[in-house]
Amino acid sequence: MRFGKLSICALICAMVMLFCASALASGILVKEGSTGADVVTVQALLKEKGFFSGKEDGICGPETVKAIKAFQKSEGLVVDGICGPQTYKRLDPYAQERDIDRGIEGGRAVFVHATAYSPEETSGVTALGTAVRKGIIASDPNVIPMGTKVYIPGYGEAVAEDCGSSIVGNIIDIAFDTHAEAIAFGRQDIEIYILE
């Protein structure tokens, strides 16, 4: 019986990680407690569609969650108050096209092997002395020099402010705010854009 419980637990954990990975791949995961530009984007889209009347303040509180739930209900989606890939795709069906256009118009394409990290796995400070946070990447300075801006589809803009002994050649390490987000991203071969 114990083995059966462990298997069910493992299956649930795998499903949660798959959900998180797909949400991160879409570039948006907004839930209660989230803050930042992604929240502002979701609030603006919800306001545009008549589901949100509050201030677009970048803080996902009870009013934003209520608006996400109302939108999900109107679209026949699972009503959980989390704006992940399915909800965001319905909110903004042209987001992926704009992401691709932004990268193509914005700079030179480079294929990289991307891993992810957060302040929880490090000292919390980059090689340039800044805080490890979303919007930072670690790169090989011979490939992507420190201070270079890049665009990562599904993630957004980032700046090369860190490096590491295992970051050699076309390998980058993308910073996330939490360990869970970094684990959900995992390892991916992706195309990024060097912004000139």
Question: Your description of this structure?
Answer:
It is built from six helices and six strands. The protein is of the alpha/beta class and 196 residues long. Strands 1-5-2-4-3-6 form a six-stranded mixed β-barrel. It folds into two domains: 22-93, PGBD-like superfamily/PGBD (Muramoyl-pentapeptide Carboxypeptidase, domain 1, Orthogonal Bundle), CATH 1.10.101.10; 101-195, Barwin-like endoglucanases, CATH 2.40.40.10. It is elongated and about 50 Å long. The longest helix is centred in the N-terminal third of the chain and has 25 residues, at 2-26. α1 packs parallel to α4 and α1 packs across α6. It has helices at residues 2-26, 37-48, 62-75, 85-91, 95-106, 179-185; strands at residues 107-117, 136-138, 149-152, 156-162, 171-175, 188-195.
Attribute tags:
Muramoyl-pentapeptide Carboxypeptidase, domain 1; 6 helices; 6-stranded mixed beta barrel; Barwin-like endoglucanases; 19% strand; 196 residues
